[in-house]
Amino acid sequence: MNHEKKHVFFRRVSTTGQSLTMQQSADLKYRDKLLRHQVLLIEESAISANKKSTDERPEMQRLISLIKNNRVDTLYAFDRTRLFRDTFEGMEFTDLCLKHQVKIVYTSEGNGHIQSTQDIFLESFLGMFSDMEGKNIARRTHEANKRYPPKKLGYTKIKEKKSYIPDEKKETILKSYFAEVNEITDMEHLCTILNRYQKELKCSAERLISIAQDPFYAGFDLENGENRLPHVTPYMTLQRHKKLQEEKGHLFTTYKKRLEKQKSQDTFAPICGLCKKPMLYRISVIENKSNYSCSRKHERVLMQFDDLSRIIQQLLQETIKNLNFKKLLYDSTLFFRNYKKKLVMEAKAIDHQIKKYMENLILSTNGYSPHWKDDLAYKKLKRSKEERELLLKGLDEANEYMANQKNMREKLETLLTDRLKENSPWLFSLFVRNIVIYPNSLDVEVSNFDYLTDLQKEFVYEVGEVS
Ligand SMILES: [Zn+2]
């Protein structure tokens, strides 16, 4: 059983711990299907991991060596940004996974994220644009439960005793919030209460929900069993906390889900046609809807999110129809070739280093050591060289594959159409540069225009056409 391949969950942990919860919950449904011994967690600190190459990331190195030793069945990561710094690294990594038949599953849902395609060409195409991905997508998460939080709404932290006592200024309000939230009947009721206490406690509605769900306020940590926190003066008993979750928990969850969904949709960033400033994105949790609006010293400009989304959908459909696949494929081939060139040059540089290393070894007066092959520097150089050679070989194969691939166009078209069906922000960021909304119409400016044929550069829709 020891040699059974593992299902590896690779996570990025930032200093605030904020995104870990999100990653954990996203991969939970995959972990649930597995036995404990099949699962391997690798958590990487996100501190400037973005700036470091894979060589300088020990957790990444561990992952790579597991893959090379054929110990990995499937790799789960939240999305590409959790794995790679840039396109080049992404391609190297994809190549490695393909070679060792490692499946890659991206656990992020609904953020316009694209599942791994197991196809080095398509992966590289996606990789070309992966930098765009994520930029438009706001991801907000909740604070993780910690035993000694630096700050906790409603509490004053006594440093000397390391204890938490209710904050005099907020105690009464928070108590009445707990009392009222205990009595909520439906979503509308919950929203009304949240609206009021948001102002009184000067925090977001989301935060208020988290407070209602947080066992810290009962003086407990429930992450692993029931752990009483003796240093915390509770606002309520554990029984009451549990009862609140049992009875109102579904409303809290629905609220958060709706909010999360609406927030994740906010990717269009339209501009107001009258004042040329970004429009405000407003969410109605009760109606589970959102809209873009602006009324900065002018008549109100308003657009329902659903309407805008439908128009963009039409536009993207049109765009894909008019896509110059020939040019797109041609450019991707160029991209491939440049990548290869870069690798060849790197391999040459390493060759040179190895030569120099050998010269030093021979010329050094301390003489010859029979163990020079065990020298770390030599090993490292040799390994790098071997890796480059492997990659070059892989690229040769990929080049050939592309040259012989007749249905590449269909494949790409299918890929894009699938994204279209999912209403992908990625597709949007690829082809839409600007949206300007006027009281009765809107302009959409298309980008990556080089890849489009017979398509007017600007679309003008009358709002009446869609509503
Ligand atoms: Zn405006």
TrEMBL record:
<keyword id="KW-0238">DNA-binding</keyword>
<dbReference type="InterPro" id="IPR036162">
    <property type="entry name" value="Resolvase-like_N_sf"/>
</dbReference>
<protein>
    <submittedName>
        <fullName>Recombinase family protein</fullName>
    </submittedName>
</protein>
<dbReference type="InterPro" id="IPR006119">
    <property type="entry name" value="Resolv_N"/>
</dbReference>
<keyword id="KW-0233">DNA recombination</keyword>
<dbReference type="Pfam" id="PF00239">
    <property type="entry name" value="Resolvase"/>
</dbReference>
<feature type="domain" description="Resolvase/invertase-type recombinase catalytic">
    <location>
        <begin position="6"/>
        <end position="152"/>
    </location>
</feature>
<dbReference type="InterPro" id="IPR050639">
    <property type="entry name" value="SSR_resolvase"/>
</dbReference>
